[in-house]
Amino acid sequence: MEIAVASIRSPAGALAAGRHGASLLVLSGRRRGFAQTSHVQLDHLRETCGRHGHVADRSRWQFAVQMHVAESREQARKDVEYGLEKWIGYANDIVPAPNPAPRGLADPARWMADNERAIIGTPDDAVAKNRADA
After folding, report:
1. Could you write out the three-class secondary structure of 17-51?
2. CA 28, 97, 47, 133 torsion: positive or negative?
3. What is the CA radius of gyration of the chain?
4. How far apart are CA 110 and CA 77, in angstroms?
5. pTM for this predicted structure
6. Coil, strand, or helix at residue 80?
7. What's residue 120's pLDDT?
8. What DSSP element (H or E) covers 65?
9. How far is Cα 134 from Cα 119, in angstroms, rounded to an integer?
10. What is the pLDDT of residue 62?
11. Helix ranges (DSSP H) in the chain
12. pLDDT by 10-residue block (mean), the chain, 134 residues
């Protein structure tokens, strides 16, 4: 069974994955900046794997993106309305992103989708975003 250690921006997850020879699961957004800063984690993973007799296999390095899908974009945005502003506040305070979401947004779901911090829409939107990255 594949075991992965989650990591956001601190090196703790990459260090633990390297120590135990586990996969690395990076929780991120879709913007290029997230992927670029995640390379630092890959460097930590490689270095720690080497010190503990493991090989850092890039194919086991995964990204997870927040996603909510519904039958329509409007429904998906409506579904995440409740609590999204509170979650943004938590995310900004606890795990600050390179491009934090402003507080008091009129439409936080639209901001999250437009700034590629989450995929909020239909299954077709999720597939299209995945194809755009391929």
Report:
1. HHHHCCEEEEEECCCHHHHHHHHHHHHHHHHHHHH
2. positive
3. 16
4. 7
5. 0.71
6. helix
7. 93
8. strand 61-69
9. 16
10. 83
11. 12-20, 32-51, 73-94, 108-114, 123-133
12. 86 94 81 66 92 90 87 95 87 72 86 86 90 62
Residue with tokens 């990204």: 63
**Dihedral through CA 81, CA 98, CA 61, CA 25, nearest 10?**
-50
Residue type for 127, please? V
CA atoms of 126 and 30, how far apart (whole Å): 12
Position 130, amino acid? N
Nearest to 40 by CA among 3, 62, 9: 9
State how far the Cα of 129 lies from the Cα of 134, in Å rounded to an integer.
Answer: 9
In this structure, the chain runs to a length of: 134
CA atoms within 13 A on the CB side of 64: 12
